[in-house]
Amino acid sequence: MSEEKNYKASTGVDEFYYAVLTDEDEKSFKTGEITRVKFLQEIEVEMPQEAMRAYGDNRTAEIAISGGNITVSTQFHKVPVQDKNILFGLEQVDGLSTVGSDDVPPYVAAVFTKTFEDGSKEWVGLTKGMFMRAKISGKTKEENKDFYNEEVTGEFMERYVEGAKSEKSVLFGADKKGETDNRDSLFKKIFGKSYPGTNEEEQDVIEG
C-alpha cells in the first residue's frame, strides 16, 4: 500500500543548525560541534535548473538539464557574535571581531525545519557551503520601537552522502507529529552525528 500524500502547506520555520566541515574526502566526511542559531524568521533555498536544447531537422532533438548554483538566503531576529565569528571566518583580536580582505569562511553543513499546523515537520539539510558576511546597519530610535533583523546569505555545493550513488547538495524528509525517523536519518547524513535536542524537547514533540 502506497504512503498517503500530504498536501498541507508549511506555516513556519524552526531549528536552524550548522556545523563546520573539519575533514572530507571522496567517501567520508567529519564535522565539528552541531550549533543552533535560534529565532530563524525566514529561509529560502534556490535550486535553479536550465533546460539546454539540441536541434536537428528543424526541431528539438534532445533536452539536457543543467543545474545552477545553490543559494541560501536567511533572515534571523539576531545572529550572535559567536556564530558570526565562526560562519564568516572572522579573526578575533583582544576580544574584538575583525573584518578584512583575508577572511575565509569555513565550509559548513546546515539543517533547518519547516513546521506545519498539525505538528508535523519537514527537515531540510544542506551538505556543504559557505555563508558570507552580513551587512552592518542601524537606525535611530523613534516613537514606535522597531526590531531590525539580520540577513545572511550562503552558497552551497555537492558533497558525499552515505548511501547515495552520487554527491548531493540538498536533502529533505518529513516526519508526522511525534515521529523522528527522517529527522534522525537526515542529521546522520548531513552531520554524521545524532540530533542534538534534549529529552525535554523530545517530550514536548510527543505531548504537544
How would the blueprint of this fold be written?
Elements: E1 12-25, E2 28-31, E3 35-37, E4 40-46, E5 49-56, E6 59-67, E7 70-76, H1 81-87, E8 91-93, E9 96-98, E10 108-115, E11 121-131, E12 150-157, E13 170-175, H2 181-191, H3 199-207
Antiparallel strand pairs: 1-2, 1-3, 1-10, 4-7, 5-6, 7-12, 8-9, 10-11, 11-12, 11-13
Sum up the structure in keywords.
Pnp Oxidase, Chain A; mainly beta; two-stranded antiparallel ribbon; 3 helices; 208 residues; disordered C terminus; single chain; nine-stranded antiparallel β-sheet
CATH class: Mainly Beta
Strand residues, percent: 35-45%
* Shape label: globular
Number of distinct beta strands: 13
In which range does the helix fraction lie? 10-25%
Count of alpha and pi helical runs: 3
Low-confidence stretches: 199-208
Report on this model:
- The chain is mainly beta.
- The protein has one domain: Pnp Oxidase, Chain A (Roll).
- 13% of the residues lie in helices and 44% in strands.
- The chain contains three helices and 13 strands; from the N terminus they run E-E-E-E-E-E-E-H-E-E-E-E-E-E-H-H.
- Strands 1, 2, 3, 4, 7, 10, 11, 12 and 13 form a nine-stranded antiparallel beta sheet that branches. The chain has a two-stranded antiparallel ribbon with strand order 5-6. Strands 8-9 form a two-stranded antiparallel ribbon.
- Mean pLDDT is 89; it is low at 199-208.
